[in-house]
């Protein structure tokens, strides 16, 4: 049995997979935040370059990867698939567990798969500066890395609680040349408005998005770059699953269960969507898909499926998604990448149709499984990926009880080398198991935009 399954550089995909044409029905359109009417490509022009807008709305099932992007991918792609046989023994399960490891990228996560592509398209259209938000710092790090490769300035609005929890992520971004601000700031109207209401605001991804979008929209030489949620980001991430399909074929197996953690949906979709496409086409109808999220920010499991603003103050597109409300400010859990108030519209659509099953987990149970994984397989998971590992352990236990050897594939989306304060808190018994109260959900959902019924 091979421990790791490797591909050559010639196996890097030359096309991204677009799930939209294979969805069981048309996805809901994006709405203009001012009019709440369907948006056209021209509405997105102030914040995205034309090539990205074309990908966002494309109905083509495959989109070519530019050769310059593939050349940069060679720095870390193809990423390995590992058989987690030691973890299988630790879990005492007959299940066969495999994981795709995205921590091999320079930024330490899956995020450069889209950061490099977005930096490429922006540079081709003469953009000089990119603005963005980041939660845990993984996305900001990736865009800083990509900006350095293409000579772009990068401005990052980092959620304040993560800015304070993860100083070395900030230092990493600055090493690659980015300017990093703790959000909310006094630099934007959005930030000033939030601070006027709550001077001690810990920030949220919704707030940081508002600041980054405002910055881009008010400067002619800048565009906005998003690390998750939107279609083109999930499209770029499918290099993960396309490689994994080849690797699982080399292993002589096809996954019965595909698992990933979910904040906005990028790493989950990156691994899962090529396999979801098989299921939607009737090729592997029995495959199950599990989206693991935090109980402190349970968008898919407890949010409402409705139109909502993608940012805190309502200047970005309005999309239909599972949401806790755009005004929702999450608790200070350590999984900073999983604290967004909503999720990718295509992912939410698939959850609504029963294709993807969401599950929510508490902090301590996730860290317990992450430590078990680290002590058996050696890799130290990011707190976000620990949620996927918790779901894997749950499936492994179910396999043991059923006496079957189901094949489980999950995405270890990044390493936790910059997250040791979270592990310190776990070992000291200081992690809170926060579950969101229904009253907080109800209060946030009360502020959903009143979208008119379609004509």
Summed up, what is this model?
By secondary structure, the chain is an alpha/beta fold.
Question: If you had to describe this structure to a student in words, what would you say it looks like?
Answer:
The chain is of the alpha/beta class. The chain has 2 domains: 17-58 and 109-231, Rossmann fold, CATH 3.40.50.1100; 66-108 and 238-445, 3-Layer(aba) Sandwich (Rossmann fold), CATH 3.40.50.1100. The protein has 19 helices and 15 strands. The strands form 4 sheets. A 7-stranded mixed beta sheet has the order 1-4-5-15-10-11-14, sandwiched between helices. Helix 6 (138-150) links the parallel strand 6 and strand 7 (153-159).
Annotate the secondary structure layout.
Elements: E1 4-5, E2 15-17, H1 41-44, H2 50-56, E3 62-64, H3 67-73, E4 81-83, H4 85-91, E5 96-101, H5 112-124, E6 129-134, H6 138-150, E7 153-159, H7 160-165, H8 167-175, E8 179-183, H9 189-197, H10 205-217, E9 222-224, H11 231-237, H12 239-250, E10 257-261, H13 266-280, E11 288-294, H14 299-302, E12 304-309, E13 318-323, H15 345-352, E14 357-361, H16 363-377, H17 383-402, E15 407-412, H18 420-427, H19 438-445
Parallel strand pairs: 5-15, 6-7, 6-9, 7-8, 10-11, 10-15, 11-14
Antiparallel strand pairs: 1-4, 2-3, 4-5, 12-13
Helix pairs in contact: 2-11, 3-5, 4-16, 5-6, 6-8, 9-10, 11-13, 12-13, 16-17
Task: For this entry, give a set of tags.
single chain; 455 residues; alpha/beta; Rossmann fold; 2 domains; seven-stranded mixed β-sheet
